[in-house]
Amino acid sequence: MTTPPEVKYTSTSLSLSSLITCFISCFVIVSCLLEGLCVTSKANALSQSATLSLDPLLWDHVVDLNEDFRILWKIINQDITFEIQARTLGYVGFGFSPDGNFAGSDIAIGWVDKGQTYFQDRHIKRNGDPEPIVDPSQDYILMWGYENRTHTVLRFRRKLDTCDPAHDIAITNDTMRLLYMYNERDPPHGSVKPGHLPNPASSFRPYRPIVLTQRPHIQFKHEEYVRILELRNEDVELPGADETLIWCKTFKLDDMKRKHHLIRYEPIYDSPASVHNLQHITLRECHGMHQELEEMAREQGRQCMGARDIPLACNAIVASWSRGSNSFTFPDETGYPMESRQAKYYLMETHYNNLQPDLTQLHANRQMADNSGLKIYFTHVLRRHDAGVLSIGE
Ligand SMILES: *[C@@H]1O[C@H](CO)[C@@H](O)[C@H](O)[C@H]1NC(C)=O
Ligand SMILES: *[C@@H]1O[C@H](CO)[C@@H](O)[C@H](O)[C@H]1NC(C)=O
C-alpha cells in the first residue's frame, strides 16, 4: 500500500484539521467526478492519482508553457483543477497577471521539502516588490504534491471566481495572462515569511496568454459560409538547438465592409520538423492606422524580443496557440469580432524553440527556413456574443 503524500498547509485562516478533512473530501469528490466511481480508500490516493495523471482523458487540456513547465487542467462546473509538472526541485509558482507584469498578480506558490508539500495562495503587491506574499484568504486548495528525481508536481484546485477580488483574479472566458515561475531552491525550513522566497524576481518567466475555459473535444463543422485565412511566416531562419527565436510579422487585413466573427484557429506546420520548433503563437490586433504598422506589414517580418518590441496599438489578443494543443474553437454562440474599420493590422508573434536533440540536427535534410503560422476560420454569419478582449494598459 502506498502512503498518501503528507500535506502541510500554511494557511492562517483555517485550522489544520479542517483543511485535512477538506483535502480528503476534495480528493474523493474529484476522483468520483473524474472516474465515475468512488475511491473510498484514502491510503490509495497517491497511486490512484499517479495512474490517473498518465491517463490523457483525465485532463481536458495540456500545455507546455516552456520546456520545463507543463500545466494540465480540467473544469468541472465552477471549479478548475490544475496540475503543474515542473522540472525543478525548488519552488514553483503559477497564477494570473492583470496586464502581463507581475505587480498585482494572483499566484499560488508551492514546493516539496523532505517529503512535505507546502502550498499557499499568494499575491504580489503593486509597489514593485516582486515577492508573492500570502493572501489572508486561501482560495487555492492543494490536492496533492510530490517530487521525483527531476520534477515537482502539484495538483490543486480553485473556484473560477474565488470572490476574493482584492487578492485573486477571476478566471473568465477571456484570454488569461498566465504567470509562472520556478527556482532551483526551496524557501528555508518551509518558511512563508516575507523575504524567504529565494530570488523571486529572476524566477518569473514571461507570461503566456491562454484561454482556459475552452471546451475540450468541441466538434467543428466546416460550413460553406466559413472562410479561411492563412497567416504564415515567410522563410524564417530556424534557431539552432536550445535557442529561442521570437519572430513578429504584421498582416494587413483586406477590407471587410461588415463585421465578421473569427470562430476557430489552428497551427499551420510548414513541415514535420516545424512541430518540434513551434513553441507558441500569439495573434494580436492593432488599432489605428499608424505609419509604423503600414511599414511593418510590407516587411517580411522581424525578430522581436517580447512586449517592448510590440507596438502599443497591438495590445488586444485575438488568438493564442501553444505547443500541445491542436486547435481552438469558440463555443457555438461566440466569435471574436473582426472588422477592418476597427483593426486593419494583425501582428503575429511566433516563438520558435528548437528542442530536438543534436543528433537529428546533423541530419542532412535539416530544414532551414520556416513558413509556419496560424490558420483562422471566420464568417459573416454572426454569433450572439463577441468573445472578450483583454488589453494591456490604456
Ligand atoms: C518525474 O515526474 C515527471 C512529471 O510527472 C515526469 O515527466 C518525469 O518523467 C518523472 N521523472 C522521473 C525520473 O521519474
Ligand atoms: C463562459 O462561457 C460559457 C460557455 O460558453 C458560458 O456558459 C458562461 O456563461 C460564460 N461565462 C461568462 C462569465 O461569460
TrEMBL record:
InterPro entries: Cu2_ascorb_mOase_N, Cu2_ascorb_mOase_N_sf, DBH-like, DOH_DOMON, DOMON_domain, PHM/PNGase_F_dom_sf, Tbh/DBH
Boundaries of every DOMON domain copy: 67-183
GO cellular component labels: extracellular space; secretory granule membrane
Domain of life (superkingdom): Eukaryota
GO molecular function ontology, one term from the record: copper ion binding
Keyword Disulfide bond: no
Keyword annotations of the record: Membrane, Transmembrane, Transmembrane helix
TM ranges: 12-34
Pfam families (alphabetical): Cu2_monooxygen, DOMON
One BP term from GO: norepinephrine biosynthetic process
Keyword field contains Cell cycle: no
Record-stated family: Belongs to the copper type II ascorbate-dependent monooxygenase family.
Name recorded for this polypeptide: DOMON domain-containing protein
Protein species of origin: Glossina morsitans morsitans (Savannah tsetse fly)
